[in-house]
């Protein structure tokens, strides 16, 4: 299956954060990611499954790589482990740093516009913790 035939996966919103995350994927530094179960539920989308492949797009919407999911876990925010945090490739050195960074994003104006103004992450908020491998660079 070619890069053009794959479904698209987006990391963050277009802009500097997406550019940073895509660069980390392309360099091999980023091999995990986190999303909210609530996002899938709100969009009526099934949770991802190991073996699924997707095209990574950059801030301009170009397909720049393909990744394949190798592991998908649903865990409360409080149970995200250090290995997952480190493998996000964003420079986190602890789970506390991972959580602070992700809460900042999840509580941002862009996410609140999607999730509602009262959305707040708690220890019990369910996260989709995904591991992936880079399979193709476009």
Task: Explain what you see.
It is globular, with a radius of gyration of 14 Å. Strand 3 (53-57) and strand 4 form a beta hairpin. The chain has a five-stranded mixed sheet with strand order 1-3-4-5-2. With 138 residues, it is α+β, with helices and mostly antiparallel strands. The mean pLDDT is 95. It has one domain (3-137): Sulfate adenylyltransferase (Roll). 31% of the residues lie in helices and 28% in strands. The longest helix has 12 residues, at 16-27. The chain contains five helices and five strands; from the N terminus they run βαβαββαααβ.
Provide a compact summary of the structure:
The chain is of the alpha+beta class.
Fold blueprint:
Layout: E1 8-9, H1 16-27, E2 32-36, H2 37-42, E3 53-57, E4 63-76, H3 82-87, H4 95-106, H5 109-115, E5 126-137
Parallel strand pairs: 1-3
Antiparallel strand pairs: 2-5, 3-4, 4-5
Biggest beta sheet summary: 5 strands, mixed
**What's the CATH class label?**
Alpha Beta
CATH topology: Sulfate adenylyltransferase
User: What is the domain tally?
Assistant: 1
Would you tell me the structural class of the helices and strands? alpha+beta
Distance between the termini: 13 Å
Strand order of the largest sheet: 1-3-4-5-2
* Shape-level CATH architecture: Roll
Low-pLDDT residue spans:
none
**SSE string, helices as H and strands as E:** EHEHEEHHHE
Helix content: 25-40%
For the CA atoms, what is the radius of gyration?
14 Å
Overall morphology: globular
């Amino acid at each position: 299956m070619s890069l053009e035939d794959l479904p698209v996966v987006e990391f963050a919103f277009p802009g500097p954060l997406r550019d940073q995350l895509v660069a980390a994927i392309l360099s091999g530094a980023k091999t995990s990611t986190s999303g909210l179960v609530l996002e899938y539920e709100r969009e009526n989308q099934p949770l991802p499954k190991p073996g699924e492949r997707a095209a990574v797009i950059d801030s301009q919407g170009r397909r720049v790589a393909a990744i394949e999911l190798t592991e998908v876990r649903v865990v409360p925010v409080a149970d995200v482990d250090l290995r997952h945090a480190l493998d996000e490739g964003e420079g986190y050195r602890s789970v506390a740093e991972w959580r602070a960074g992700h809460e900042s994003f999840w509580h941002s104006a862009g996410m609140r516009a999607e999730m509602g103004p009262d959305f707040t992450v708690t220890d019990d908020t369910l996260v989709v913790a995904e591991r992936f491998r880079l399979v193709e660079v476009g």
